[in-house]
Amino acid sequence: MTRVLVIDDEPQIVRALVINLKARHYEVDAAHDGATALQLAAARHPDVVVLDLGLPDMDGVEVIRGLRGWTRVPILVLSARHSSDEKVEALDAGADDYVTKPFGMDELLARLRAAVRRSEPVPGGEDEVVVDTAEFSVDLAAKKVNRGGRDVRLTPTEWHLLEVLVRNTGRLVSQKQLLQEVWGPSYGTETNYLRVYMAQLRRKLEADPAHPRHFITEPGMGYRFEK
Amino acid sequence: MTRVLVIDDEPQIVRALVINLKARHYEVDAAHDGATALQLAAARHPDVVVLDLGLPDMDGVEVIRGLRGWTRVPILVLSARHSSDEKVEALDAGADDYVTKPFGMDELLARLRAAVRRSEPVPGGEDEVVVDTAEFSVDLAAKKVNRGGRDVRLTPTEWHLLEVLVRNTGRLVSQKQLLQEVWGPSYGTETNYLRVYMAQLRRKLEADPAHPRHFITEPGMGYRFEK
DNA sequence: CGCGGCCGTCAGAGTTCCGTCAAGGACGAC
DNA sequence: GTCGTCCTTGACGGAACTCTGACGGCCGCG
Q1: Which residues of B touch A95 (CB under 8 A)?
Q2: Sign of CA dihedral A197, A199, A202, A205
Q3: Sign of dihedral through CA atoms A137, A139, A143, A148?
């Protein structure tokens, strides 16, 4: 869940933001002054910060600098001041966006989404999606299969088949479903393809291909992958 | 030097932007319609895009989608329309910021700086800037490749291809992804380019180009860089 | 016991895909 | 203009992959 830190000294604005954010399933922390804000940010590590520049205890730009000293969390500035200089100062201090009051809630939320989106890691990036078994491991993101310390080469079809099975670990996948996912919607009945390629997978991955422990046949129904 | 792509059909706005940007030592490309813009973006790989939504040939939001199909380059939208819906649509399509005309040049430039700044890699962050192998080393920041103590000369395309592969060390990168990242979104199928340039890279970097150890072919799927 | 359905195995044919080379064209430097 | 560099394009041999048919084993059933 995305965590938002809202910093504003006007209770009604904080309330409006909190209600709207929570309704959209954000997790929200709120601070009404700069000191509390910096503390909360350090303690809670929000994914995005909404900051009103007009705070009672310190200049909003100081809050930006305080945050930028240790984090690159997106900062969305709210301010009643329209002057160009103020905007430039805040942005150059490290803010990511600057919205002037009064603001539309839809727009603010859209800007918030944009800020969160671009700080996300590349999709299909680092997050390792690895499935381990006793004999081998499958890295779905890197498209790699490792067995006994060395990489196993799979052909596109073999890989595709393996992927479907692994994404349904423990579940029975019908022959028809496998054929259609791997070979296309019009290949619901060519079960001989399955036999051939399942044999390849077993030969490459099973310790004893004749007595598979991971690629289980369910006669007349389909196949199942088990860790 | 930071490269900016300006997309606007009003000559005077383009002129004003180009003059201001060049005075601040940006490198500037300009396009006056969406089709040209997408082409230029693919060819020149700007560090940031300034996009006017009102284009003669296509909807500005379509341009955003066209870019977002293959790149995360920051997009700063200019528009004469103040409506909240327009902003939300553009931002949710993938824009990073939305400025309404008439705009102050100072503010625009500050927002541009903010957009560029946050897309920069973490300075001294965890991402390795230098990747070493037994035979050569790649310095992603300095854009240099060293082999046996001397620098290897790479053409822009060779470098670009190498960069994509190295940034995905160990992971399989599909042919389509490589083509689109290096040559642009409309080059998803010209696999002969890949064959030619992969051969160049191997010739320049592999000890035995006929039996590559680092630039691995996965037939039918793509390529993989291994340390 | 014989039969049929289902599955695993094998090997060859056909097709697709890849590495390599070389020529042509665009572009900028001089 | 001339040169050099780089990108594009086509062609071809060989490698890798997919498809296909045939055969044998296992099991349940008549």
Answers
A1: 114
A2: negative
A3: negative
Going by pLDDT thresholds of 50, 70 and 90, the confidence category of residue A162 is: very high
Q: Which of A71, A75, A77, A91 best probes binding to B when mutated, by most B CB atoms within 10 angstroms?
A: A91
Count the alpha carbons within 13 Å of A218 in the hemisphere toward its beta carbon.
Answer: 12
Of A22, A65, A14, A16, give the one whose Cα is nearest residue A41.
A65
pTM of the model: 0.73
On the CB side of A13, how many CA atoms lie within 13 Å of its CA? Answer: 19
Quick one: tokens of B46? 């700007």
* Amino acid letter for position B106: D
Residues in chain B: 227
pLDDT digits (tens, 9 = 90+) for A129-149: 899 999 999 999 999 999 999
Compute CA A90 distance to the chain's CA centroid, rounded to the nearest angstrom.
29
Q: Is there a contact between B118 and A159 if contact means CB atoms under 8 Å apart?
A: no
φ and ψ at residue B188, rounded to 5 degrees: -75, -15
What does the DSSP 8-state code read for residue B151?
A: E
Q: Which tokens is A18 given?
A: 């909190």
CA A195 to C1' D24, in angstroms, rounded, equals 15
Q: In this structure, are residues B165 and B225 in contact, taking their beta carbons and an 8 Å threshold? A: yes
Where does residue A13 rank: exposed (0-12), middle (13-18), buried (19+ CB within 10 A)? middle
Whether residue B66 is predicted with pLDDT greater than 80 in this model: the reply is yes
DSSP A153: P
Closest CA to B31 of B1, B9, B15, B63: B9
Q: How far apart are CA A132 and CA B100, in angstroms?
A: 52
Confidence check: pLDDT of A127 > 60: no
Alpha-carbon distances, residue B77 vs A118, B5, B58, B115, B196 (angstroms): 15, 12, 15, 12, 38
Query: For the residues B97-104, what does the mean pLDDT come to?
Result: 94
A124 pLDDT tier (thresholds 50, 70, 90): very low
Mean pLDDT of B86-113: 96
- Coil vs helix vs strand at A37: helix
> How wide is the angle at C-alpha A77 spanned by C-alphas A72 and A81, nearest 5°?
150
* Cis? peptide before B56, omega within 30° of 0: no
Residues A85 and A55 sit within 8 Å (Cβ to Cβ)? no
